[in-house]
């Protein structure tokens, strides 16, 4: 079967130009295979596909090249190599060096005890030799949930450690449970509000998110929720001492031959499909064999791969089920290309593997989801909302996957990290939309404006990044003491979709300054929380570079907004220098949302 390369395929040339001459120290020393190869070196067929696509449509590759060059970052801060699997990361010399550092002063910073163990799951190395090793902690062989951190070093010398607040203690729990696994399983099943289809065998862990390290059972539950169309995919942490529920972790994050896709929102676009006997299928061989499937309005992440005889998909209307599929398929490709060309990331997990997208999920569903492994798109209600397959929505959902593969920012029931998680997805969904520059959906700071059937002037959106509190529920100014973990539940006062307004405003102000977007009747004073209306932006490409570096090198699962300020400023220092205009502008922007 031969891939049919579409217009977006040429976009990876920008990243190759930067990285092609660099070897992967991780891959070379850890025995990288064809499935775990240097991200800078596509195989021969992929190189040919890129060349063909670039020749066919240079106008799509040049914006990415401009994006890669526009960040103006300090020489040496660029990515030189990165791991493509947890096994490769843990076996790398960088991980061994990080573990060596943990035997000394670094271990003191982490409050290491003798029975603690450390496993690397991600390694990123900059061109100047700075190593960023993301690690998980264990205690007497049990995973420590909330014990993750990142070791930053250069030339064998510790620079810093990024970690959350809940493991700054030498206390460890006794590892003898007072309740049995069967009771933990019952407690988790009872906590799930719906009909469970599977409940895992309980596994003992040390839980340290929002509580002192506590022996707990982790129980994973899947099923259909009550009064909620989102798929059920949750982990429950049950106190092994008394059976109480410590934490509910929801893994479902909501949004919100050259084939031709006749899309709903973008007009007619080129998409990558695969030729098969009798026609074509929506498989993208140039992007890890990602697939787009028809969920048949069912309730699970399963469905039928879209197939077609003439490689023309949809009719620009919802009367053809392939129309929404074309939007989603194109959106995944655009997001893949953005990450590849601007940040050198080869797919969600940096392993070159594609993602599955399920279109027509459930009936009259006004939402889209990342369920931990795939993307699910509802059809909208057909009255106010069309299918939720807009370009920035696709970028948003796929970014949840990138976050899950890197910082693993907690979502519900954790102080600030859920809002940061959502904000990161909005930021990169926006950057994807700008990168494509489609005349039918030009870049803007509105999330999901294209999902509205009637939206004159694009004034309505799921979120306004510059003034998210216009919805009457979101927050744009950080409160004293932060957001309360107990109120960050779904549709609660501090639901992550509401608290993301703080980070979204940081991104907008950093990109554009304290200026009101054309067509909106706000004042400059309404753009900030502290009266500083003279803020000037540094541009969205630089802000994107800072946010990506902070996400992948510094953020951890329990990151708070004050930590996000610290670590984005560290990223700005890495990229532009501690005395740079970019650093000063970003510090001023954080103060403008009351994070000081």
Characterise the protein shown here.
The N and C termini lie far apart (56 Å). The model is unreliable at 1-68 (pLDDT under 50). By secondary structure, the protein is an alpha+beta fold. Strand 18 (283-284) and strand 19 form a beta hairpin. The protein contains 15 helices and 27 strands. It is 31% helix and 21% strand. The chain is globular. Strands 2, 3, 4, 5, 6, 7, 8, 9, 10, 11 and 12 form an eleven-stranded mixed beta sheet that branches. Strands 13, 18, 19, 20, 23, 24 and 25 form a seven-stranded mixed beta sheet that branches. Helix 9 crosses helix 10 (391-405), helix 11 (417-436) packs across helix 12 and helix 14 runs antiparallel to helix 15.
What's the average pLDDT?
87
How many helical stretches? 15
Largest sheet: 11 strands, mixed
Helix content: 25-40%
Number of strands: 27
Overall geometry comes to globular
Tell me the span between the first and last alpha carbons.
56 Å
By helix and strand content, what is the structural category?
A: alpha+beta
Instruction: Extract low-pLDDT stretches.
Output: 1-68
How much of the residues is beta strand, in percent? 15-25%
C-alpha Rg (nearest Å): 23 Å
